[in-house]
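Entry:
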Amino acid sequence: MAKGKEKNNGNLGFEAELFRAADKLRGNMEPSDYKHVALGLIFLKYISDAFEARHAELLAEDPRAAEDKDEYLADNVFWVPKEARWSHLKAAARQPTIGSLIDDAMRAIEKDNESLKGVLPKDYARPALNKVMLGELIDLISGIALQQPSPPTPLPMGEGGRRPGEGNIRRAQATDVLGRVYEYFLSQFAGAEGKRGGEFYTPRSVVQVLVQMLEPYQGRVYDPCCGSGGMFVQSEKFVLEHGGRIGDIAIYGQESNYTTWRLAKMNLAVRGIDSDIRWNNEGSFHKDELRDLRFDHILANPPFNISDWGGDRLREDPRWQFGVPPVGNANYAWLQHIYWHLAPYGTAGVVLANGSMSSNQSGEGEIRKAMVEADAVDCMVALPGQLFYSTQIPACLWFLARDKSGRSLPSPPGRGAGGEGKLRDRRGEVLFIDARNMGRLVDRTRRELTDADIQKIADTYHAWRSARRDPHPGPLPEGEGEKLQYRGGFDFSGLVQTARELRKKQTPAEAVMWELLRNRQFIGLKFRRQHQIGEYVADFYCDEHKLVIELDGDAHSTSAQATKDKTRDAYMTSLGLTVVRIRNAEFLADPKAVLERIVVVLPSPSGRGAGGEGVAPYRDIPGFCKSATLEEIRKHGHVLTPGRYVGAEAAEDDGEAFADKMRRLSTQWREQQREAARLDSVIAANLKALGYD
């Protein structure tokens, strides 16, 4: 198995190494300028390689077709003239004219591809750009391997010894590799640029929360301030990972920054995603390019607290259904613009500053009240700090819904993390989730949500809005409030302690999990280890709930293994089983969070079905989530801060009696006082010996 740090493999562990190498070539060039140099070349490499792959296929089939531009466009492949192909530029990489050659290549590509007109950077020949660095960067990008391992199950042989669809698979794999490299570079440049980086990039973990909660399987997806297009990329990924196809969703967006709009167009093109992304420098408020369209899913991360948005010129705008937003802050203008664009059963997820949940300035409180009373708000999520490159302002997520009656269509059968089936009538209720304590620090200044965190938030929302509810949603029985309780009143604290002890001994993840599942320790369920299912062997299997738990190591991050896993999961799903995949490192780092996740997605004993049986019943968890009624929200003055509703997290019982703990702590305190007095005497004596009485 190739290691992640090696170049030229599908594991993509080399992406960080690739960026470090590219960043070294930057020299004294500002990241904001170098970003366009590097990303433009990555894009050029992608479209050239995709063209060459299709060209080779057509040559084998019909040499005349290989020179027919329409053959490429029909297959969603850009036409690349000879002088613009990567092989031509690579051969000339060490020439002093390489900058001009790249600019000419970009112009030629734009000329032959209408959708790329005005998108590509064309200033590589400028004198300030070091041409030696440029040549070295071309050599570096040339090392990105696009040929991934073949699919695990060979396609049937067709005429001429070729397998139909084989070329499409190779091109899709190439798209995935370069697309992920492009995304990684975007994130790193955003970090390097700091506040300015946040203008074009939303952290991936935040986007994933929005996508996993809204589940955009099909229909129109819109972002009114789309930045570099990250919302769209993650939405397409979600569709593909859950059995859909690129094209199941239609992408629409608008961006007021021309440079950022170009990044978005390239980001989507490198993924093979067709889109309608509009640019104008007036922005979505003043020149709404898509004013008459309505959308099934809207995902947005608008700039926080904008004061100069030109609201004084829009006082009579019909979009302000809940009240005219203040001239000095655009937060509620964004919310109402987005709600205006929702289809009859549409849903939206919006990132805003925390102040939007409680502000009463300039009529914002009255607008928020009107939105709540009209049942426009479905869910509120408080996020942890330090998630964003551009600001340290704490942020939250607003989830809006046009129709909370439950009449909206469920997700396509068998798809989705939620597995909700029929949605229930949620009118008069709002779900509050407090995720402020989630996430992990990835460096000194920035935090990100883990996969387990994202799954827990999304699963909680899916369970809450599904037709199945806990028949006893009230407070926990007396005495149980001191423990974190789940279905059946089960307490995980003992199991978590077992996991901690095993981790100290560096026990493998499967051994740790088995210690938690064996002998019906986990909420009374019987699990089997290494259980045969058809031609596959499941790591852990519970027959009562038709649940499969798979623990995945580093090998599962390769493209080839991911394809095998999808085939395996699809087979198990076809048998009516629920598959939960967990990373080894994720599980060992926080077994409690993983156990919570398993409980939330646990199907009913009867299996999945149309009534929402695939979702565990929702229940309020102190300190994390609360389903609040309209009356409760009124008592809080329509303030939507989750902390007001979820309460304090239940303390975990450490098993030590209070009286014993107080005796132990009192003794410890007295010992520390005596030691402090002794140290004071030693310090005083030393100072005296040095002549400092």
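Residues 656-693 form one domain.
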